[in-house]
Amino acid sequence: MSVTAAQGFTAAGIAAGIKANGNPDLALVVNDGPRHAAAGVFTSNRVKAAPVLWSEQVLKGGAVSAVVLNSGGANACTGPQGFQDTHATAEKAAQVLQGHSAGEIAVASTGLIGELLPMDKLLPGIEKAATELSAHGGEKAAIAIKTTDTVHKTAVVTKDGWTVGGMAKGAGMLAPGLATMLVVLTTDADLDSATLDKALRDATRLTFDRVDSDGCMSTNDTVLLLASGASGTTPEYGEFADAVRDVCDDLARQLIGDAEGASKDIRIEVVNAASEDDAVEVGRSIARNNLLKCAIHGEDPNWGRVLSAIGTTKAAFEPDRLNVAINDVWVCRNGSVGEDRDLVDMRYREVRITADLAAGSASAVIWANDLTADYVHENSAYSS
Amino acid sequence: MSVTAAQGFTAAGIAAGIKANGNPDLALVVNDGPRHAAAGVFTSNRVKAAPVLWSEQVLKGGAVSAVVLNSGGANACTGPQGFQDTHATAEKAAQVLQGHSAGEIAVASTGLIGELLPMDKLLPGIEKAATELSAHGGEKAAIAIKTTDTVHKTAVVTKDGWTVGGMAKGAGMLAPGLATMLVVLTTDADLDSATLDKALRDATRLTFDRVDSDGCMSTNDTVLLLASGASGTTPEYGEFADAVRDVCDDLARQLIGDAEGASKDIRIEVVNAASEDDAVEVGRSIARNNLLKCAIHGEDPNWGRVLSAIGTTKAAFEPDRLNVAINDVWVCRNGSVGEDRDLVDMRYREVRITADLAAGSASAVIWANDLTADYVHENSAYSS
C-alpha cells in the first residue's frame, strides 16, 4: 500500500534517532524505474525550509529517483548550514543508493522550526534505511513521517493496469498554500513530468489547497508525484488526473480527520457564488473564524458568526440575501433568522455548513476543524 | 469621569431587563450642548447590524444629541424588523428627551447576533434611564454596556480648559476595522463635525484599528465622538487630535487587557519595513497566527512561528535578513537561529515581539492576545 502500491517503488521507514523518543523518524522512497518522471508542489510561504529550496531545484529537472523524508525537525530558518545539511542528505542518499545523482534526490523535513538537524544521526540513518528498502515498505515509510499525527495516512487507487498510491503526514499548521504536510504520491503509469505536473496541480488546487485546519501556513509543505512507468501503461490524461485527485482528496480528508486537538471536521460549502474565487475566499474566511470554530466545538449552531465572517470578504453578495444552513437546517434566511436553531443536530464529528451567497452559480468546498482546548494545549505545552 | 467628564453631558446606566441575569444593559448619553457636533467610525464588516446602519445615517448630518446603547443583544442579522426596532428606539429617546429629533439620536447595540431585541423591555428602559440622567452618570453608563467584559473601561484627558473623555466595551471579536467595540467619546471643546471627524479617524487608525485580539471582525463596532462646546474653548487641531488619540489609545489598551480568556497581552512592533502598510500587514499576520498565540500562552519563545507568519504576507523583505526579538532577546537573526531562547523571560502578562524586516524605515505597533483554553471555553460553552 501507500507509496509502494504502484510497481517500481521500494520504501523504508526507520528510527534514526532524530526524535528523542526513539520513534521512527526517517523514510526513504526509491523509484526503481524504468522512468523517473516527477512533479512537485511546495509551500507558498515565502519563508521556505532548506529542503523545500533544495527540492524545488531538483524538480526543475523533472526527474526524481528517490525521496528522503525526516520527521523530528523541519530544517527551516536554519541558514546556510541548514541548506548544506539538506545537500549532504541528498549526496549521502545518492552514494548509498548507487547509480543515482544527488540532483535527482528530493528531501523533505518536518518538525520544529529553527533548529539544525542532528546530521550525525540522520546520515547513518540513510544507510540503515537503504538496507531495509522493500516493495512492502510503504506503510513503514508512512509511519516514519508522522509528527503529532495520531495515525499514519495512506491512500491507493488502482485502475486498469496502473495504480496511484500515496502517503501523507500533517496535523497542525494546516492551511492552504499548501496545508502543512509532506505527501509523496507514486504511480507506475508511464507519463512524462509535464503531464504529472499538470495532474498534480489540478489535484492539489481542489484538495490540499482547500483544507484549512488552523489558518497557519507552513514553511515545509511538500507534495511530490513520482512515476516509474513500470506498468508500461499510459492512461488518458483525464482518467489519470481523476485518480490523482481521488488519492489527494482521500489523504486531505484524513489530514482534517486527524488535526491537532480537533473534535469536529467542518465541511464548508459555499454555493451560488459569482465566481469560484469568491466561493473559496468566503469558505476560507469562515474556516478561519476562531469564534465560529469555538461555537462548533460547543455544538452551538451560531450562524451569526458565519455571517460576520462572510462580511469581511470582498466577494459579491448582498447581506440581506445570504442564507446559511448548518447540517442542512437553514438557520439563516435572507440575512436574518431562519429555521429554528434547535433543529440542528451537531452531535457527530462531521459538521456541514452551507453558505448561499445568492450571487451566481459557482461553488467550492473548504474543510476545516473546530478550535478546542486540546488544540491550545498541544500547541502551548511544548515546542513543535 | 467617562463620558460625563466633559462639560455639557449627562448619562445614565440601568438594568432594563434585556439581559436575563438582571445586570445593567442600557446606557443613555445626552449632549446638552450648546453644540451637538459629532463624528463616527463604524465597522468595515459588510454585514452590519441595524443600529450601525441607522447611526451611519444619523452621523451624515454631523449632529448627535444623544446616544442609546444596549448590551444583551446585537440586533444584527435581524432583517427589516431589526431596523424598525432601532428606529423605534431613536424615536422613543427623542420623545422622552424632548426637544430632540430622532434623526440626531445614535443607537448602538452589542450581544448575540441573530436575535430580535426585547422591545417591551428596551423602550420602557429608555424612559427609566432618562429619569436617571446625571452629570455623574458616566461610570454607570460604562457599566451598562459591558458584555463579557470583566471590568468597565473609561479614560479622560483634561487640557487647558477643555476635556476629552470616553467609555468603551469590548472583550471578544476584537479585530481591526474596527475591533468589536462600542465606544463613546465626549468633549466640551467647541469644534465642528468636520474637525471631529478628522481627529477621530486619525486616532482610530492608530489605536482601535491596531488591536487584534482574535482576528474576528464584528457586525456592530461603533466609535462616536460628541462635542458639546460647553467649555467655550476651541483648541488647536494638533492638541485636540493628540488628546483624542490618547483617550483612544488608553481605551484600546484596556480592551486588550480584558480580552476574553487571554492570559497575555502581546505588543507586536514591526520595524524597518518598506512602508507603514507593510508593517501593519506583517503585524496583523503575526497577531492572527493561532500557533504563535498558543506558544505565547505556553511562554514558549517560538520565533519559527513568527517567521512562518511573516512569510504569508506580501510585504517587502528577504527571508534571510529577518530578525525577531521576543522581550528584547534577538532569538532570530538573519532568518536563522540567534540568541539563546532560554534567555527570554515570559512570565509577565505583557509580551513584546519585535519583527525587523530590514527593508526600510517604516514601523507599526499591533496589539494582540494569546490563545487559551479559557478563550475556547468562553466562546464554546454558550452563545454570545
Structural notes for this entry:
2 copies of one chain form a homodimer. With 384 residues, the first copy, chain A, is an alpha+beta fold. Chain A contains 10 helices and 16 strands. Helix content of chain A is 32%, strand content 23%. In chain A, helix 1 crosses helix 2 (79-97), helix 2 (79-97) runs parallel beside helix 3 and helix 7 packs across helix 9. Chain A has helices at residues 50-60, 79-97, 119-131, 138-144, 193-206, 237-257, 276-287, 290-297, 303-310, 373-380, and strands spanning 9-14, 26-31, 37-42, 66-70, 105-109, 153-158, 163-169, 182-187, 211-212, 222-227, 265-273, 323-326, 329-333, 336-337, 350-356, 362-369. Chain A starts with 8 loop residues before the first strand and ends with a helix. Chain A is globular and about 65 Å long. The longest helix of chain A has 21 residues, at 237-257. Chain A has a 7-stranded mixed sheet, sandwiched between helices. Chain A has a 5-stranded mixed sheet with strand order 3-10-8-7-6, with helices on both faces. Chain A has a 4-stranded mixed sheet with strand order 1-2-4-5. Chain A folds into 2 domains: 2-257, 4-Layer Sandwich (L-amino peptidase D-ALA esterase/amidase), CATH 3.60.70.12; 265-380, ArgJ beta chain, C-terminal domain (Ubiquitin-like (UB roll)), CATH 3.10.20.340. At the A-B interface, helix 8, helix 9, strand 14 and helix 10 of A face helix 8, helix 9, strand 14 and helix 10 of B.
